Automatic annotation (TrEMBL):
Belongs to the peptidase T1A family. PANTHER family: PROTEASOME SUBUNIT ALPHA/BETA. Pathway: Protein degradation; proteasomal Pup-dependent pathway. Pfam families: Proteasome. NCBIfam families: 20S_bact_alpha. Component of the proteasome core, a large protease complex with broad specificity involved in protein degradation. One of its GO terms (biological process) is modification-dependent protein catabolic process. This is Proteasome subunit alpha. One of its GO terms (molecular function) is threonine-type endopeptidase activity. Keywords: Cytoplasm, Hydrolase, Proteasome. CDD domains: proteasome_protease_HslV. The gene is prcA.
């Protein structure tokens, strides 16, 4: 009788982490940045039907990089959690921190379980506050840990290089146009140091806009509004707010 092959727990967890990281690295990167009136989500996404960014609740947005079917299951679970908690208690009891804790438990359980493969996803959960100081951004890697971010965060294939670029250039109080331009510039960076052009039709952009009078602060930016923001002078952009409901369809 042969001796069973032994793998130490440390090596097994390291292998699972490497497997998840490689899967995430194959996906396109995305960035989440704070600007003067809220939080903007920007990513390269040629699909018009499969979204990287979604609304979870009134003031909470969700972004994900990695395998679509896996993060879509997590998104749906987050929506159900938020709806149930808001209905059972109060809408103000639904917070990004609580949602991040739920996602962390789910991802951590899957990552440590030998019965199933780890999820190849990296999540960002963001909540816009009444003021910039009240904004919350949480990054959740594949292992279920929670990283409290401020200012900007990047996830996906080239996240480390993009994060370094954003850290050097992002400033508090930026206009939406300036933040959007910075995000596109960061996403255009190649691992070899070069740059490429990302056309507007390949961009997915959404915002959590604290100035919106509606209870729901999430809004997608598409079409003419996106083109105007990309063409605007970042220092003095007039149309920095999200598009009106009459101009673009409400999410």
């Amino acid at each position: 009788m042969s001796t069973p092959f032994y793998v130490s727990p440390q090596q097994a967890m390291a292998d699972r982490a490497e497997y998840a990281r490689k899967g995430i690295a194959r996906g396109r990167s995305l960035v989440v940045l704070q600007y003067a009136d809220g939080i903007v989500f920007v990513g390269e996404n040629p699909s018009r039907a499969l979204h990287k960014f979604s609304e979870i609740y009134d003031r909470i947005g969700f972004a994900a990089a990695g395998k679509y079917n896996e993060y879509e299951n997590l998104r749906i679970g987050g929506v159900r959690y938020a709806d149930l908690r808001g209905y059972t208690y109060d809408r103000d009891d639904v917070t990004a921190r609580g949602l991040a804790n739920v996602y962390a438990q789910t991802l951590g359980t899957i990552f440590s379980s030998a019965a199933e493969k780890p999820y190849e996803v990296e999540l960002v959960v963001a909540e816009v506050g009444e003021t910039p100081e009240g904004d919350q951004i949480y990054r959740l890697p594949h292992d279920g840990s929670i990283v409290d971010e401020h200012g900007s965060v990047a996830v996906g294939g080239n996240a480390e290089q993009i994060s370094g670029y954003l850290d050097q250039r992002h400033e508090d109080g930026m206009s939406l146009a300036a933040a959007l331009k910075l995000a596109v510039q960061a996403l255009s960076r190649e691992p070899n140091g070069g740059e490429r052009e990302i056309p507007a039709e390949r961009l997915e952009v959404a915002v959590l806009d604290r100035t919106r009078p509606q209870q729901r602060k999430f809004k997608r930016i598409v079409g003419r509004q996106l083109a105007r923001l990309l063409e605007a002078d970042g220092a003095a952009s007039a149309p920095t707010d999200a598009p009106s409901d009459e101009e673009e369809g409400e999410e």
